[in-house]
Amino acid sequence: MELDRATASLRPRDPWEGQDLGFALARAWFLPMWLLWWVSALPLGVLCLFLTGPRPGLWLLALWWLKPIYEGPLLVWASRALFGERLGWRALGPLLRDGLPRRMLPHLLWRRISMRRSFLMPLTLLEGLQGSALRQRRHVMSNGSGVPFWVTLTCYHFEILIWAGILLGVFFLVPQGVPRLDLLAAVTDETSWAYWVSVIGYAFAFSLIAPFYVCAGFALYLARRTELEAWDLELAFKQARAASPGANRAPTRGRDDAARFGAGLAVATLVLGLSLLPAGMATADARTEPDQARALIAEILADPAFGSLKERQEWVPISTPAQEEEPASLPRGVKAILLAVATSLKWLLLALAVVAIALLGVRVWRDRGRFGWTARRARPDRSPAPPSLESIADAGLPEDIAGAVRSRLTEGDRRGALSLLYRASLAHLIRLGVEIPDGATEGECLALASRRLSPARLGPFALVTRAWQRFAYAHRLPTDEALEALLDTWSRWTADAETVTT
Predict the structure, then answer these.
(1) Mind spelling out the 3-state secondary structure of 413-450?
(2) 111 with 72: CB under 8 angstroms?
(3) Mean confidence (pLDDT) of the chain
(4) How many domains does the chain have?
(5) Which of 87, 169, 281, 340 has a Cα-to-Cα distance from 325 of 20 to 30 A?
(6) Which among 235, 267, 291 is the end of a domain?
(7) Nearest-5° angle of CA 225, CA 226, CA 229?
């Protein structure tokens, strides 16, 4: 691999910085990679359409599942473009051939749902590994970083956002008077034309994201290899060798071997010089030789080939000298007691949790009928039945209702007179055959009576009810004259009802 031909800087990068490099490469190479994606995906899309028939959901699922087949040529194209190769349409055949490895089946089965697919696919496509070598290489390359996982998750979310934007754009940009896109049918109704628009929009969305996804994984792969194989140091030694005075006389064959030889020669020279330094200092002037050595060492270390200094700021807790001292260790017996107490508390809490869950299950089982989960057996009700409305209305009623009401009016008890008149009216309704359930309100009693009786037979019950409601809820009692008028009307009502009954 000729690293000096790379068009991007190969240096140690943080995984997130490597992802940014991949997105930058995708922006620079977007058009050719996007066209290459369609060249790979379009024939398979037509084939899947014939296989699935008029079922757009199944067609989209097949197209989505075959993504590794379209991503392989993109990865091969990016790996060659990184090192300065200009790939035209004549290289399309080799790209498609190299982008489909012999062991593509794992990428379409158990590795298809891997969230690190773009990061680990170069091991198969570019390095050609398989079997135990591939497993070992995957273990070495996967250093526990979660960035490839987040790259996949982020790209999936961007696909959904672009797909939703396409649907909303088609919906809002269609002018009035033209049949609009039904958004609900575009998501749920597989038989409608709107669903086909939704499916094609989603396929277009993941064609736009594919170059970014492939390049991001490839850049993470490059960053990891740079870290493992020190590509930056190799490039630095090559540049140092090219800048040396004897670089023009050096043979051009095997430049990588020459670079490694030059690096070894430089290190050997440095070690030899340091070993001879004490002997030289013994014979030279003690005041000048150390100064010259320091200057020489500083000049060597200032060369970019030996790396560079990096300043890093970190937040550290401010602690006093007393806090920095290590606490005295506890005796072994005290540690054993504390450990036993902690273990006992842990098991006690676990037992309490199990008991609480069991009690909760018993309570849910007992109340299952209350929530309608099962028919609950009705237990015999041994409590005394509450008094009915009819018994309450008839309780304590005198035989001469009109005389009792007038007697209370004479005594100035308008509240008692109105209450007696209302209860007598309810009792009269019940005798007329109106069934009034227990607990019915004044308004419900009036509604039931209005549906059951004609206006002539209903009589003054509506007036008596409204007078009672104004008193019960607004504390407004009718005047004596109003009560006398109600009583006269009530007396004629009950008398007519008795005559009809007789």
Answers:
(1) CHHHHHHHHHHHHHHHHHHCCCCCCCCCCHHHHHHHHH
(2) no
(3) 76
(4) 2
(5) 340
(6) 235
(7) 75
Q: For 172-215, write each residue's pLDDT tens digit.
A: 887 777 677 788 888 888 888 888 889 999 999 989 999 999 99
- 218, exposed or middle or buried, with CB in 10 Å at 0-12, 13-18, 19+? buried
What whole-number distance in Å separates Cα of residue 234 and Cα of residue 3?
A: 8
Question: Residue 296, by phi and psi: left (phi above 0), alpha (psi -120 to 50) or beta?
Answer: alpha
**Considering only CA atoms, which of 198, 185, 195 is closest in space to residue 159?**
198
Could you say which of 215, 235, 255 is where a domain stops?
235
Region for residue 307 given its phi and psi (left: phi exceeds 0; alpha: psi -120 to 50; beta: otherwise): left
The sign of the dihedral angle between the CA atoms of 490, 491, 494, 496 is negative
Whole-angstrom distance, CA of residue 465 vs CA of residue 467: 5
Domain assignment present for residue 380? The answer is no
Q: Which residue has better confidence, 1 or 352?
A: 352
Interatomic CA distance for residues 490 and 423, integer angstroms? 12
Rounded CA separation 461/123 (Å): 93
Residue 331, both tokens? 């005796």
Dump pLDDT digits (tens) for 402-415.
888 888 888 888 88
C-alpha dihedral, 32 to 36 to 38 to 43, nearest 10°: 160
> Range of 460's domain?
389-501
CA distance 65 to 57: 12
Quote the CA–CA distance of 450 and 458 in Å, as a whole number.
7
298 domain residue, yes or no:
no
- How far apart are alpha carbons 198 and 157 in whole angstroms? 16
CA nearest to 114, candidates 15, 30, 123: 123
Distance CA 362, CA 252 (A): 85
> If you count them, how many residues does the chain have?
502
Residue 373 forms part of a structural domain = no
449: Cβ–Cβ under 8 A, 6 or more apart, which residues?
A: 429, 434, 436, 458, 461
Instruction: Tell me, yes or no, whether 266 lies in a domain.
Output: no
* Structural tokens at position 376: 């609950």
Q: What is the C-alpha to C-alpha distance for residues 244 and 251, in angstroms, rounded to an integer?
A: 14
Token representation of residue 124: 């198969």
